[in-house]
Amino acid sequence: MFRKRVDPETAKYFMEISNLFDNKEIDFEERSTICVNALEEARGKELELATDAVISHTLQVLIEGCELEQLCTFLRNCIDYFPVISMDKNGSHVTEAALKSLTTHLEDETSRAMIEGILNKICKVFFSFTRYVPVRCTVVTIFYACLW
Question: Looking at the whole model, is its pTM more than 0.85?
Answer without folding.
Answer: no
